[in-house]
């Protein structure tokens, strides 16, 4: 690792690195990835152990505070998050300004940004207490906001949170409860939902997290920064890939059509890519995809659902893993490949997939934002450029052009 700052100060030279493929933008103690070995650690703990043994509340605490909570700390954190699950009633009015058929990610970008107008007190980023309250508010309110986005698009009334339920259970009830009193949270679905949240909680300096840090580096308030992260996550090359992956699997339809799509993915004249395949950092396997692949089978089995999409996904994975093109380019299923199959089995429409990703990633975004704010080396993010435009020339009046 070369610290380029001294080199720059001494020589005036700088590096050209489109897409930041080899530039560390910060130091961080939160998440470690070894892409060649397929390792993902949060504060040192392997993702598969966290997904198997912990809860999203524990992982959120871990990301923010650096250590797993003891029982009292976990109870206290869960109590604090529960206390903040409600949103201001006026926010419901804000939702009603959106078109009924708006994409829920468009709604989320708007409402999360609007939180800064509702919670002015925690926009003072110089106050550690307010930073902590803003962080709790964001983690706590995301399930409520996400469920409201869903309810709004299907024309059903919003449901208030029930703080006797778990984080995942509460979200499921607010999303699927019709009427709320009769909705029973299915423990299988609740556990799968929590696992999905854990698997999406953080992933070091990906595009959306870098966006949150970049927005925050100017001193913008945390609600605005998380809204920026949501906007970035929406893209099909990032969080939108799980929606795109499931749409692709449905389009393929049956395993016999897979070779046609593999051929398209390999054809350089065709912009088509196998969605849910490939990763900037993982060049061996994505450990999150392995956990989700297992979970997909478990959830569908336990729910008694037989979905041909899962068969197509499994077959596609097997064919691609043996194909020289995918081997040479080190393309493996990523977290988005199987998550859509599970989310669809639970009952979410594809348009909600990225919303769920944003909900879970808020824990990581806010942990990264806090780390950045308290980093003594932190500066405003200001990438340089390699100018390739016109050289200096004189203005010509419009009549003479
Ligand atoms: N299907 C077919 N070919 C692919 C795929 C794919 N899914 N992904 C990469 N390639 C090829 C590229 O065409 C390129 O080929 P070339 O060297 O002949 O030009 C080579 O592999 C490298 O691809 P890049 O786009 O340069 O790799 P990068 O690291 O920039 O991109 C990305 C990673 C964006 C994830 C890419 O693999 C992709 O578009 N995958 C599909 C979308 C997807 O699943 N995104 C989810 C990512 S995980 C997440 O955000 C949570």
Describe the protein in words.
With 401 residues, this protein is mainly alpha-helical. 56% of the residues lie in helices and 2% in strands. The chain contains 18 helices and three strands. The chain has helices at 4-11, 47-53, 56-65, 71-83, 89-95, 104-118, 128-154, 167-176, 187-199, 207-217, 222-233, 241-252, 258-266, 287-303, 308-322, 324-328, 335-346, 353-373, and strands spanning 31-34, 39-42, 45-46. It has a three-stranded antiparallel beta sheet with strand order 1-2-3. A hairpin with a 4-residue loop joins strand 1 and strand 2. Helix 7 packs antiparallel against helix 18 (353-373). The longest helix has 27 residues, at 128-154. It is globular. The protein starts with a helix and ends in a 28-residue tail after the last helix. The relative contact order is 0.14. The mean pLDDT is 93. It binds acetyl coenzyme *A. Residues 19, 237-239, 241, 265, 273-280, 329, 331, 334-336 line the site of acetyl coenzyme *A (ACO).
């Amino acid at each position: 690792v070369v610290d380029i700052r001294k080199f720059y100060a001494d020589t005036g030279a700088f590096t050209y690195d489109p897409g930041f493929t080899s530039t560390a933008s910060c130091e961080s103690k939160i998440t470690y990835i070894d892409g060649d070995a397929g390792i993902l650690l949060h504060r040192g703990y392997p993702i598969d152990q966290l997904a198997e043994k912990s809860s999203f509340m524990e992982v959120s605490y871990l990301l923010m505070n650096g250590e797993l909570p003891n029982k009292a700390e976990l109870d206290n954190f869960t109590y604090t998050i529960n206390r903040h699950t409600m949103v201001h009633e006026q926010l419901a009015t804000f939702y009603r300004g959106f078109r009924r058929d708006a994409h829920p990610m468009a709604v989320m970008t708007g409402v999360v940004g609007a939180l800064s107008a509702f919670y002015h007190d925690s926009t003072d980023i110089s106050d550690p207490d307010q930073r902590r309250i803003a962080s709790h508010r964001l983690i706590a309110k995301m399930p409520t906001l996400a469920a409201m986005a869903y309810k709004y698009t299907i024309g059903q009334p919003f449901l208030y949170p029930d703080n006797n339920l778990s984080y995942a259970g509460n979200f499921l009830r607010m999303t699927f409860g019709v009427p709320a009193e009769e909705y029973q949270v299915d423990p299988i679905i609740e556990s799968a939902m929590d696992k999905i949240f854990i698997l999406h909680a953080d992933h070091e300096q990906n595009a959306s997290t870098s966006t949150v840090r970049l927005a925050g580096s100017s001193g913008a308030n945390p609600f605005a920064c998380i809204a920026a992260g949501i906007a970035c996550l929406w893209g099909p090359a990032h969080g939108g890939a799980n929606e795109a992956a499931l749409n692709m699997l449905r389009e393929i339809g049956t395993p016999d059509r897979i070779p046609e799509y593999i051929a398209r993915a390999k054809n350089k004249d065709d912009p088509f890519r196998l969605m849910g395949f490939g990763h900037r950092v993982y060049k061996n396997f994505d450990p999150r995809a392995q956990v989700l692949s297992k979970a997909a089978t478990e959830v569908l089995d336990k729910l008694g659902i037989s979905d041909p999409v899962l068969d197509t996904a499994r077959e596609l994975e097997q064919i691609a893993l043996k194909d020289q093109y995918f081997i040479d380019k080190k393309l493996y299923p990523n977290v988005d490949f199987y998550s859509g199959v599970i989310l669809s089995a639970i009952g979410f429409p594809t348009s909600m997939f990225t919303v769920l990703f944003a909900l879970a990633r808020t824990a990581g975004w806010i942990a990264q934002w806090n780390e950045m704010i308290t980093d003594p080396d932190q500066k405003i993010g200001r990438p340089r450029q390699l100018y390739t435009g016109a050289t200096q020339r004189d203005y010509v009046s419009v009549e003479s052009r």
